[in-house]
Design brief:
It contains 10 helices and 10 strands. By secondary structure, the chain is α/β, with parallel strands linked by helices. The chain has 2 domains: 162 residues, P-loop containing nucleotide triphosphate hydrolases (Rossmann fold); 67 residues, no CATH class. The protein has a 6-stranded mixed β-sheet with strand order 6-7-8-3-9-10, sandwiched between helices. Strands 2-1-4-5 form a 4-stranded antiparallel β-sheet, covered by helices on one side. The model has no long low-confidence stretch (mean pLDDT 94).
Length: 238
Amino acid sequence: MPEPLLKVESLHAGYGEVRVLWGVDIDIEAGEIACIVGSNGAGKTTLLRALSGLVAVSSGKLLFDGVELAGLPADQILARGIAHVPEGRRLFRGMSVRDNLLLGAYLRSDKVEIHRDLDYVFSIFPILKERQHQDATTLSGGEQQMCAVARGIMSRPRLLMIDELSLGLAPRMVERLGEALIEVNKIGLAILIVEQDVMTAFELARRGFVIETGVVRMRGNTQMLAKDPMIRQAYLGL
């Protein structure tokens, strides 16, 4: 079998003296949609921040396409192909939708391809094209999430990580975002979704990882995980 695109082994990370992740092991294959689920405070966001260089890794391996990335600054990790859509969207106030999207490509110099990618994200999210000159922070919550995801795509990553895709959004908007991600995945972009809404994550992803108190407790095919009695009781209320 080919090596995974992302391979994380025995990853320990946290904030100062506070350890949050305790030997996390995950792997993401090229071109797949995977998810990380767990309750609030389980370490999901810290894991994404560690993978994108926003939180220091104290020990462990973070291999991306066979190259060790642990210890690299965030801009170098982004340049190597890992884009992070943070929880809460983090769009820039006072800047248009178009300018927020172009900021996603700030490390790129291929201007012709950047504009092709801008046309591509506008085709995936037509509402962003309609509102491209509007202040991005005045969009609805769902439209802001579209803009944040599209900004991540503009870096032309090989792995797009999305923290809390569905947070605060109406079910129909979550469905539309999911449809867009499935469409984007068809071009070969690997996607890693972090979610508290386990059913949303399992519907989108092929494989899943369940994290509790900074440790991956379960992993596997999402259809099988959804049938597991522990997961059904703890996360689905069944």
